[in-house]
């Protein structure tokens, strides 16, 4: 049994496991990434590793940063393993394709040493600061889409002698770059949001402006924020994944990452201080990401929401179980064809029917074993970002909204906190307390849930959508999720 704590493993190798063939000691960190989780390690870190394997990008290694107390475990694992981890591609036939990834050449844990994080951001070698801090992690008002200066931690960070949150750390690093003449960087969001770069621009410019007007102007004039569309299903790592890696390949890894075979990254080519040659490893560099964003967010991500709540209520626990259920598969394809697709722009180089076929096949991959609990995480942010824009465009155009209304009703029924067998459902959402209280009032106070304006704005006032929501919720209460979905399939 070999362990990734044995830091010579990339040179000696493990049978059946690809390992870095490059000298990691010669890789300098040019990217600082905040929010090192499964998706980052299956996506950006994988692309940089591929470039390093090809003999490129020696100045573009990654320094990972953890800012939350919960990142302490990642800190411990990556430090013990010298930044190495195993990326395990899970094929539909159950086979595994593991690779040890070496592009994370350093990791800093901000709660212990925020000054080191700030100095790494301010270092002349740093050219990109990238982010995966989740859709709800940005200081944005979900209704207006504008920077929210009262977002948790923003003002506290600005008032602190040394900030510890993501926005405070980055803005302090930018201030030092400005003062020292180090030059600009690119801030690159890799989160699932429409216009993720535009969102990051509003937030970081807003925080910088709050700190100092001159700094805010410098950030606005010098820092670039490319938009991107990122895509790879990356379920949470389970103990069974660690066991399979050990049993099949004799490799012990404290925190491997599992992922599907499919990966896509469409990236706006707008970098202030250079970039790796991402196009050499399959990244699509484009002038306009918007059509690809709409396609992915409104088809893949919104469809995840469509299957998550209703599938859980119907007794399923994994994405592939829902996608393999004929009634659900028909319901999901109907949502994509009739409600989401009419809101999309033409997507250069993509056939939408083929893309939707591929999505359903990806969802049905049993090897991935993606849990419904994972995709139901952060409901209020994900529904707001992925599904409700489709609803609003369809209402404005007079198009159908019945399936989307059923998804919102499914979230409401899920938020009540018990399934159809009376078993508790743990709510993992920043607005869980509010949404559960409102969901439980629905039976005696119709539309209480939909009238929560921080999420739904004025949708409760639209008779067509409100009526479809009430009909679906009544069906869920009286007949259950399976019958409700079958009627809409």
Automatic annotation (TrEMBL):
Gene Ontology molecular function, alphabetical: mannitol 2-dehydrogenase activity
Residue span, Mannitol dehydrogenase N-terminal domain: 30-279
Source taxon at top rank: Bacteria
Keywords: NAD, Oxidoreductase
Mannitol dehydrogenase C-terminal domain: residues covered: 288-476
Enzyme class: oxidoreductase
UniProt-listed Enzyme Commission number(s): 1.1.1.17
One Pfam assignment: Mannitol_dh
Protein name listed in UniProt: Mannitol-1-phosphate 5-dehydrogenase
Biological source species: Pseudonocardia parietis
């Amino acid at each position: 049994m070999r362990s990734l704590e044995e830091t010579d493993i990339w040179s000696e190798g493990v049978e059946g496991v690809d390992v870095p063939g490059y000298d990691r000691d010669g890789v300098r960190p040019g990217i600082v990434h905040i929010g090192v989780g499964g998706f980052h390690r299956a996506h950006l870190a994988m692309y940089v590793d591929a470039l390093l394997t090809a003999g490129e990008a020696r100045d573009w290694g990654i320094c990972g940063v953890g800012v939350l107390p919960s990142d302490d475990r990642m800190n411990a694992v990556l430090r013990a393993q010298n930044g190495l981890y195993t990326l395990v591609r899970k094929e539909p036939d159950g086979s595994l394709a593991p690779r040890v990834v070496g592009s994370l050449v350093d990791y800093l844990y901000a709660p212990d040493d925020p000054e080191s994080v700030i100095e790494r951001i301010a270092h002349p070698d740093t050219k990109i600061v990238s982010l995966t801090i989740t859709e709800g992690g940005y200081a944005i008002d979900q209704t207006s889409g504008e920077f929210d200066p009262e977002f948790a931690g923003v003002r506290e960070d600005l008032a602190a002698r040394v900030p510890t949150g993501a926005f405070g750390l980055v803005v302090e690093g930018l201030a030092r770059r400005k003062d020292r003449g180090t030059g600009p960087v690119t801030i690159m969001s890799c989160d699932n949001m429409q216009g993720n770069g535009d969102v990051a621009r509003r937030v970081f410019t807003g925080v910088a402006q709050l700190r100092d007007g001159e700094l805010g102007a410098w950030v606005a004039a010098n820092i670039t924020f490319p938009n991107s569309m990122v895509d790879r299903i990356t379920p949470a790592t389970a103990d069974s994944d660690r066991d399979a890696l050990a049993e099949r390949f004799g490799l012990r890894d404290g925190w491997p990452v599992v992922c599907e075979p499919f990966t896509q990254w469409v990236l706006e080519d707008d970098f202030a201080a250079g970039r790796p040659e991402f196009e050499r490893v399959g990244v699509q560099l484009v002038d306009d990401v918007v059509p690809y964003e709409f396609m992915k967010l409104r088809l893949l991500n919104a469809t995840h929401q469509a299957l998550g709540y209703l599938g859980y209520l119907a007794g399923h626990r994994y994405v592939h179980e829902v996608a393999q259920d004929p009634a659900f598969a028909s319901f999901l394809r109907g949502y994509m064809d009739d409600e989401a697709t009419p809101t999309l722009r033409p997507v250069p180089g993509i056939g939408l029917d083929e893309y939707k076929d591929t999505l359903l096949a990806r969802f049905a991959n049993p090897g991935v074993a993606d849990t419904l609990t994972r995709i139901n995480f952060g409901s209020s942010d994900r529904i707001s970002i992925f599904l409700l824009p489709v609803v609003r465009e369809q209402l404005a155009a007079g198009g159908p909204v019945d399936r989307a209304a059923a998804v919102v009703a499914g979230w409401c029924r899920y938020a009540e906190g018990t399934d159809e067998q009376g078993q508790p459902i743990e709510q993992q959402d920043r607005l869980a307390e509010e949404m559960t209280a409102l969901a439980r009032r629905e039976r005696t106070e119709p539309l209480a849930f939909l009238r929560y304006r921080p999420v739904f704005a004025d949708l409760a006032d639209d008779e067509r959508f409100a009526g479809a929501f009430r009909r679906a919720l009544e069906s869920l209460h009286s007949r259950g999720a399976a019958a409700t979905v079958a009627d809409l399939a």
